[in-house]
Structure formats: structure tokens, C-alpha cells
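Hi R.,

Here's the chain you asked about this morning:
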Amino acid sequence: MLVDATPDFRMQALRADIGRVDAVLLTHSHADHVLGLDDLRVFTERQARKMPLYGSSSSLADIQRVFPYACTEKPAWASLPSFELRPIEPNVEFQISGFKCRAVPLPHGRMTVFGFVLNGAVAYLTDCNAVSPEVIDSIQGIPVLVLDALRHRPHPTHLTVAGAVKIAAQIQPGLTLLTHLCHEVDHAAVETELPADVRLAYDQMQIEVTNGESRKLA
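And the predicted structure, written out as C-alpha cells:
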């Protein structure tokens, strides 16, 4: 299961040796989160079925506008990607092959995006400048929290590192991974300043969650 598809998705998939994708969850439709969707064509062709895309009605409308050739009943050519658009509502649980998912609303400047709570084990909250008390209460003590933290300087649509650490302290997860970091953040330097249960995420990081306990594999 894939959350968003960034413009460099093809390179990521090759590096991680991803041979199958069963569904995609969309946080929102900004370019840096969806312009890799075209590269899903190898999976829809190999698996001989449409790729389910789960997201808000507005996000899916943007996908239909940007990728009209992939949103038809039948693609014009077999090698084109083929999407099945599945709108979801915030705070309403849905399942993907028995895997429980729930979207939660997050403010991203003047727009609302989706974070995702996955099987009660991982909360993925990226591209946000705040997390509401209701969302904080709903994910208290979750094993893994992945949270937006763009940089140290304030930004109108993203959390700062300090702001993310403060929110993590309210949620009290087993492990917090800060993501969506920009080039201003020096990993080695910032890691020494963080609480022990807060780390900076990085490419190819692997986390295993078993019986509510998380551990880093790579």
C-alpha cells in the first residue's frame, strides 16, 4: 500500500525492489505528492486490474483532471495506467484487504488535507501546520507517528521541528518520525537535539510494528 506518489516514485520503487502495489492513499493533490502516479502503469498492467486510489473528493477530482487517460472505463492502450477513484470521508474507517484505514483532517495552510491512521499502528500526518485536539485524542499512544516538520523557521503551511516535537509530546507515541524535512535541516546536528523517542525519517527507513511495539529494521 502506497501513500502518495512523488515525482521520483519510479526511482524509489526500483531502489526498494517494489514488485506490487495494491492501493494508493492520497493525502492531497499537490504536485510533489501525485506526479509519480503515471509510473503506476507497470503495476496496473502486471496485475491486470485498475489501481484503487483513495482520497478526498477534491483530490480525486484533481487526479481526474491531471490524469484523464488513466481515469477512463478502459484505457486507450493497454500500457496506460488505469485508476479506480474511491472517495473517502474523514474519520470514517475503511478497509483494504482487511487492513483498517482511517483518514483524519489536517490544516495545510488554507486547505484541508488527509492524514492516515493505518491499522491502529501508524499515524501518517504530513503536510500540516497544526494537528487538532480531536485528532490528537484519537491517536493517543499510537506505536508510530510520522509527522510533518519542514524546518526550524516558521512556515505558513508546515510545522516547524519544535512544533512537531511539541505535538508528539501530546500524543505520546512509541516512536515519532519527522518527515517532509527541507534542505535547511542538518540531520546529524538535529538528531542530537531531539528527545530519545523522536527521530528524523530518511530514505529507505524500515519500521516493524508488532503487538503495539515498534522497532527500526533499517
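The radius of gyration is 17 Å.

Let me know if you need anything else.
M.
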